Each structure stands twice: as C-alpha cells, then as structure tokens.
Amino acid sequence: MPSWWHFAASEGTPGYALVMGLVVGTILTAINQGDFILAGEMPNPVKAGLTYMVPYCVATYGAVTAKRAAWRRQNGRNGAQAQARPEATRGST
C-alpha cells in the first residue's frame, strides 16, 4: 500500500484541504476572535494559526482515510490484486 504521505500529497488532497482550512478557519476565527478584531485589537497569532491548521489537518486526514479505504477495496488488504470472483448463477439448485 502506498504510504500515508503519498495519499496526503496526491490527487488534489493538499488543494482541497487548503480550501477547507481557509473557509472553516475564517469562520471559526470570526466566531472565536471576532470581538478582538472588531475592537481593533490583534488576535493571538498562535490561536489564529491553530484555528486554520486544525480544519486543514482534519480535511487531510479525512481524504487520506477515504483514499486508503478505496485502495484496499480495489487492491485487497495486503496489496495483492483482488481476484475475480465467479459470478453466482441464478436459479441453479
């Protein structure tokens, strides 16, 4: 099976996670730090950074988990090609 990092860096995962991090991070920053921002104060940069990183990491983890599950279904658990199963015949006794 390809490594976790392979799935995390391939097939659009970084771009998808970046968009999710920016959208969700901005919403959470507005909710959690909005009063500081509206008062003209600078929010805590560590908290603001983590507010964007957490959704990015969650989106990456979710995408990698889905890709690994799809890979296992397609290739078998140990990486061997899945063997074709004989079709069941209908009505045979």
Please provide a written account of the structure.
- It is a single chain.
- This protein is 67% helix and 0% strand.
- The radius of gyration is 22 Å and the shape is rod-shaped.
- The longest helix has 31 residues, at 45-75.
- It has helices spanning 4-8, 13-38, 45-75.
- It has a domain at 13-69.
Please identify the structural class as seen in this structure: mainly alpha
Number of strands: 0
* Estimated helix fraction: 55-70%
Rg, nearest Å:
22 Å
- Inertia-based shape: rod-shaped
Mean pLDDT: 85
Low-confidence segments, given as residue ranges, are 82-86
Query: Counting H and I runs of at least 4 residues, what is the number of helices?
Result: 3
Could you tell me the strand content as a percent range?
A: under 5%
How far apart the termini lie comes to 40 Å
In brief, what are we looking at here?
By secondary structure, the chain is an all-alpha fold. The protein has three helices and no strands.
How are the SSEs placed, and which strands pair?
Elements: H1 4-8, H2 13-38, H3 45-75
